[in-house]
């Protein structure tokens, strides 16, 4: 091996050594970082590591980079705004043109009852903002006891202290307990595993878990129910068609705000602009982040219904919630450029068509494998659930590390993504080409065979 090639192959190892000397990572794990990837470049649906090796970005970064890397229009929008004005406060009494335009444009594409927006730096902040907005609203309505938040097992809503308390993945809790009080978790509509009473629709039965929880907690104490239209980090769990319509009925019956967590599903990912559109349901509050800038800038926000907005403004009382970087002009400029990309290139339509190709390809390649319990998805989101026994749905032991082994094999074949236990998650950029989608299918089939035969 030449000296030049040797240096190239050692470049990632050298950077990892420097990394471990000073960096603390999200989900920090020194062992994982010892052989971790160090990314130095990207183009479209691909990432390039420090050694110059090219990988398919199987999860769009962290579900967010829907437009892929190398989008000059996003970079130019940010650079132009940085040159003109890098920052200005978004507090009441101050604004900027980019934030105003972004709010106007969001009002045209979100649910028809949602026309007002508050901007944050990401999804976790958006969860906290909606929790506060819900409590504030019920206080203004003369119902100050309505403070509790109901969410779902396997739901992911972020990891700030309040958002973590809403998140229904219990691995996030033990290190930081006690959690914030007033958070309740119910079973989600996990079609592969949820068992409905005989003669009852699985979707309606799963939705009725919410009614049971509201009655147990006391309807006068429950402020909100928060749910992802498709649960993402929990394993790409797509609900039954009758689930969310029943959820909406229950929320209306008990005066509980329905909060749609669109951080992953917003802006075209599932094949519609926003996730609940699939089932004709309108939420009272939404939250978004990730794809609004395709990850090129940390930006998120919430959308607030006309009823909640009117109640807030009629009160004359200030909403005592604030972030320094709310309505950041650079983030809003990139978001405006991204909305143009989403609309011009029809991201919802692309996701619907390419998602079918990906899902059908995975089902054809893996659907009959004895250790594949289910292949599921909606739009450009897919999950492959590996099980020990397909006929009984018996799971592998955690110590078997099947999901991690599958992921290791996909990396060896040039694809990087994430797993939830033994569920392999896929959400490639919406701009991913059809040939690359077919390559993803081949990689999953070969990796499954390598680990499970």
Tell me the series of helices and strands, N- to C-terminal. Answer: HHEEEHHHEHEHEHEHEEEHHHEEHEEEH
- The structural domain count equals 2
Share of helix among residues? 40-55%
Q: Kindly provide the radius of gyration, computed on alpha-carbon positions and rounded to a whole number of angstroms.
A: 22 Å
Main beta sheet: strand number and arrangement?
7 strands, mixed
Question: Could you write a compact summary of the structure shown?
Answer:
By secondary structure, the chain is an alpha/beta fold.
Q: What report would you give on this structure?
A:
- The structure is a single chain.
- With 453 residues, this protein is an alpha/beta fold.
- The chain folds into two domains: 129 residues, Alpha-Beta Complex (Aspartate Aminotransferase, domain 1), CATH 3.90.1150; 272 residues, Aspartate Aminotransferase, domain 2 (3-Layer(aba) Sandwich).
- The chain has a seven-stranded mixed beta sheet, with helices on both faces. Strands 1-2-3-13 form a four-stranded mixed beta sheet.
- Strand 1 and strand 2 form a beta hairpin.
- Helix 8 runs parallel beside helix 9.
- The longest helix has 20 residues.
- It is globular, with a radius of gyration of 22 Å.
- The model has no long low-confidence stretch (mean pLDDT 96).
């Amino acid at each position: 091996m030449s000296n030049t090639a040797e240096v190239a192959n050692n470049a990632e190892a050298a950077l990892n050594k420097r990394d471990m000397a000073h960096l603390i990572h999200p989900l920090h794990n020194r062992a994982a970082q010892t052989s971790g990837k160090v990314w130095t470049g990207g183009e479209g649906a691909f990432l390039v590591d420090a050694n110059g090796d090219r990988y398919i970005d199987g999860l769009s970064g962290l579900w967010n980079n829907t437009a892929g890397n190398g989008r000059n229009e996003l970079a130019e929008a940010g650079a132009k705004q940085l040159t003109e004005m890098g920052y200005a406060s978004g507090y009441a009494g101050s604004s900027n043109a980019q934030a105003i335009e972004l709010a106007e444009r969001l009002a045209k594409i979100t649910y028809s009852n949602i026309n007002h927006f508050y901007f944050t730096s990401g999804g976790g902040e958006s969860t906290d903002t909606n929790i506060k907005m819900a409590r504030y609203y019920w206080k203004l309505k003369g119902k100050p006891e309505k403070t509790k938040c109901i969410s779902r097992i396997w739901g992911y809503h972020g990891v700030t202290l309040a958002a973590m308390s809403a998140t229904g993945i219990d691995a996030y809790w033990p290190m930081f307990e006690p959690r914030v009080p007033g958070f309740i978790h119910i079973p989600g509509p996990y079609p592969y595993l949820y068992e409905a009473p005989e003669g009852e629709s699985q979707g309606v039965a799963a939705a009725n878990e919410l009614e049971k929880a509201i009655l147990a907690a006391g309807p006068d104490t429950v402020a909100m129910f928060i749910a992802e239209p498709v649960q993402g980090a929990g394993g790409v769990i797509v609900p039954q068609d009758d689930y969310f319509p029943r959820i909406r009925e229950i929320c209306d019956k008990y005066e509980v705000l329905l909060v749609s967590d669109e951080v992953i599903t917003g802006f075209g990912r599932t094949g519609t602009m926003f996730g609940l559109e699939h089932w004709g349901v309108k939420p009272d509050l939404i939250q978004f982040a990730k794809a609004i800038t395709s990850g090129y800038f940390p930006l998120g926000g919430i959308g607030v219904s006309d009823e909640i907005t009117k109640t807030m403004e009629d009160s004359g009382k200030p909403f005592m919630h604030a972030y320094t970087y709310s309505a950041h002009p650079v983030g809003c400029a990139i978001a405006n450029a991204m909305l143009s990309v989403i609309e011009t290139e029809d991201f919802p339509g692309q996701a619907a068509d390419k998602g079918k190709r990906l899902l059908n390809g995975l089902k054809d390649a893996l659907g009959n494998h004895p250790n594949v319990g289910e292949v599921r998805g909606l739009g450009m989101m897919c999950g492959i659930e590996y099980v020990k026994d397909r006929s009984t749905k018996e799971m592998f032991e955690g110590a078997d590390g099947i999901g991690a082994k599958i992921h290791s094999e996909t990396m060896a074949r040039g694809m990087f993504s994430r797993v939830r236990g033994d569920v392999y998650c896929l959400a490639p950029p919406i701009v991913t080409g059809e040939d690359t989608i077919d390559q993803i299918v081949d990689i999953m089939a070969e990796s499954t065979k390598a680990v499970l035969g």
